[in-house]
Structures are given as structure tokens and as C-alpha cells.
């Protein structure tokens, strides 16, 4: 009897411990999802930039979610939208920020903050300002502060890194007098796809290859400083100008240090929420595993395949685009899928690159 009582108490303790661990894990996942949403809303790229078909696909999914949600949720959303618009109007009324940055247009706005295209009233330099809204969970502030820290650190160590520059940072007050952090970034104004599809034939292939190599250089610059991007895609890079077709990476809100303070590789986490954009993320990352340099390089390969497409808005940019079948999605990103499905438009040299990435030793 004593043995049974002891065993019963042990089981009760174990269940309580498991329940507590589950609650903590769900809290971490929820916070990670909020940081993902904040990073999306504080992107330098307008939500209207993706192709018409991609927009239609995302709108269809969002409408489905709205239909499933109740009227109370919709009312809350309308209330949030009004509050966001009030914030946008307030920020425009107090410009120029820091007596320098005049607002030109709104790029993005949402629950976590606002992104404006701005111009320095003195030097006439164009930039992008990210204003993070102060909230209870601080997801927006954390994302903006982290991105500003990364950019500041990067250019103290390497002034030639293929990453946008940090031009200014500081604090603003919202319409209620609460503090809001802001960062001003260099504006890579020309979308890479627009630049590539201005020409035809061999010149288009040259531009695609050149931008792919410049993107790889930006990834190398991040990795050499112990950082992973974790959200590489065509919309997260741009050119300084058509006269200076230098490709720069931006939107580093999802970046993560993969080394510790002494340049040693950090041990992988057991609980690892997915960060990134599923279409360009590696199959390894989508399984919820710790991302490494390997995952950034796989994302680079996927982006390169899209840059070599024959038209601006191809029917299917990547083999898994617009597919809702999860099993097919996993197979097409696995080592068992024939490479010709992914690499059908790129130069043949990329078959060797793909073979190395798929079968070589994974980078930690």
C-alpha cells in the first residue's frame, strides 16, 4: 500500500510538472509568434509588393480566417485599425522626426508599429523609418531594438558589409505620450525583380546571377559576424539605385546569433519555434529544428531559382508555391525529390551547388 501511495504521488507530481512545462512552452511559442508578426509589420517592404497571385492567395486565406472568427473578433480588429490610423496621423503631424526626417509615404502599418519612407531635410538622403509601438509584451520594441543593435554592430566591425546602414535612432512619443523607439535605415529603393526584368535574354541572366552573388556576399557578411538572417526572400533585399546596382539585405528582425560571446557555436535548443517565411525556408527549418548557416544557404538557393524565372510573375515560382498539400510540400523540399524540378531554369552549375548543400556536411 505504501508503495502504491508513493507511486501515485509521484505520478501526480509528474503530471503537474508536465502541465507547467506545457504552459511555459505555449507561452514561448505565443511570444515567438508575436515577434514574427511584429517583424512582418515593421518590414521595409510594402505589403502590396508581392505578385498579384501571391496577394490573392494570402487574401483568400485571410478571408477564410475572418469567416471562421466571430463578430467580437472582427469588432476588436476594427478598433485596432482605428487606433493604428490615429497613430499614423499623429506621427505625420509631428514630423520631421529628430528635426531631420520628413515623411514621404506610409510603407506599412499595424498593431506593432508603423514604417514610413522618409527623406533627410538637410542632406536629401532617402531612408526608411521603423517606429515600434510600445505594448505590454514589447514584441514590436524588441524587434526594432534588436535590428538597430545588429546594424550598429555590423558596421562597427565591417563597413563594406552588404547590409543596409543604420542612419539614425531615437525615441518618439505617441498620441498618448508613451515612448516609442525608432530606427532609420538606408533605403534600398529598387526591387531586385524590377531590375532583373527590365532586360531580356542573356542580360537578364547576367543580372540574376550578379544579384544572387551579391546576396551570397551579404549572407557571408552576416555569418562572419555570428549571425543568421532566417528570413531570406526576394523582397528582403533591394538595390541602392539603378545607377549603383548594389544589392543590400534588410529586415533583420528575425536574425539570431548562432555563436556565443567567445565565437563558439551555441548548442541547439530543444524547443525551437519556426522563424521565417515558409515558401523560402528549408525543409529542415520547417520541421521546427534549430536553424543554422545551412538553412540560410538553402534559402539563398531557393531565391536564386526564383530570380532566374522566365517571367516577372511565373505560374509557379518554386515547385511548392501555391500547393496546400503538406506531404507534397515536404517531399519537394527533401533530398529525395529530383533536383530538376527545382533547378529547371537556373544554369547547370547550380546542380553541383545543390548537390553539395543537400549531401555535404551540414553547417552548424
Label this structure with key terms.
single chain, 364 residues, Phosphorylase Kinase, domain 1, Transferase(Phosphotransferase), domain 1, 5-stranded antiparallel beta sheet, 3-stranded antiparallel beta sheet, 10 strands, 15% strand, globular, Protein kinase domain-containing protein
List the helices and strands and how they pair.
Blueprint: H1 2-41, H2 52-68, H3 71-94, E1 101-110, E2 113-120, E3 126-132, H4 139-157, E4 166-173, E5 179-186, E6 190-191, H5 192-196, H6 201-224, E7 227-228, E8 237-239, E9 247-249, E10 256-257, H7 283-286, H8 293-307, H9 326-332, H10 339-342, H11 349-359
Antiparallel strand pairs: 1-2, 2-3, 3-5, 4-5, 6-8, 7-10, 8-9
Brief account:
This protein is an alpha+beta fold and 364 residues long.
SSE-based structural type: alpha+beta
Question: Termini, distance in Å?
Answer: 52 Å
The CATH topology annotation of the largest domain reads as Transferase(Phosphotransferase), domain 1
Walk across the major sheet and give the strand order. 1-2-3-5-4
In the CATH hierarchy, what is the class of the largest domain? Mainly Alpha
Helix content: 40-55%
Average residue-wise pLDDT? 83
Protein name: Protein kinase domain-containing protein
Biased composition (Basic residues): 1-17
Domain Protein kinase: 101-364
Organism: Thelazia callipaeda (Oriental eyeworm)
